Amino acid sequence: MTFEPLLHASIAIQIHVAAVVPAALLGAYLLLRPKGTPRHRLLGKIWLCLTVITALSSFFIHQINMFYGFSPIHLLSAYVLFGCWGAIVNARKGNIEAHKRIVRGLYFGGIVGAGLFTFIPGRIMNKVAFSGDEIAPLIVIAGIAIVLLWQLSKEIWHRRRLS
User: Fold this and answer.
1) DSSP string of 91-139?
2) Under a CB-based contact definition with an 8 Å cutoff, are residues 64 and 71 in contact?
3) For residue 70, what is the DSSP state?
4) Which of 80, 89, 97, 150 suits a disulfide with 110, CB 3.0-4.6 Å?
5) Checking phi first, is residue 34 left (phi over 0); if not, alpha (psi -120 to 50) or beta?
6) Whether the Cβ atoms of residue 66 and residue 49 lie closer than 8 Å to each other
7) Distance CA 101, CA 5 (A)
């Protein structure tokens, strides 16, 4: 592991990584801990701020130039910004089920899912985490995908049992 590629990256990428890493860790903590407590509310606000910073900073990253400097990942960033707003609105309205659904989608789609693509060979985070190794990231991505599919199947099974 080396931080050299990140240190030579643009300031937008550095801000993006500085926001998304704590957002990923804090988001996992929040998903696993009791909900509705004062701590949950405070840490949830911090998580939302980090998530918004992550999404906003992505609009200044243009490494994948498909359409005037933008790529499909920027559509995900717009989705994340609207999702953050929806999470706040639903929490304030007391619509906790919608709040939970949105936050899970933001975390698993916006952070975990998008994060997997940063480890593709040739990308900066691949060089940071694996020093440019071609096989190791594929093994990690496969392992994370298996865990996510397992979690998704548990969620679907749980919903079917409630129906």
Assistant:
1) HHHT-HHHHHHHHHHIIIIIIIIHHHHTTSTTSHHHHHHHTT-SSHHHH
2) yes
3) B
4) 80
5) beta
6) no
7) 35
pLDDT at 93: 96
* Separation in Å, CA 12 to CA 60, 92, 162: 6, 32, 44
What would the pLDDT profile of 104-137 be if each residue is shown by its tens digit?
999 988 888 888 777 777 777 777 777 755 666 6
Helix, strand, or coil here: 69?
coil
pTM for this model (two decimals): 0.75
* C-alpha to C-alpha distance for 23 and 12, rounded to whole angstroms: 16
What φ, ψ does residue 67 adopt, rounded to 5°? Answer: -150, 95
Instruction: Report how far apart, in Å, the C-alpha atoms of 120 and of each of 75, 80, 85, 112, 116 are.
Output: 19, 22, 30, 14, 8
Domains of the chain, by residue range, sit at 4-162
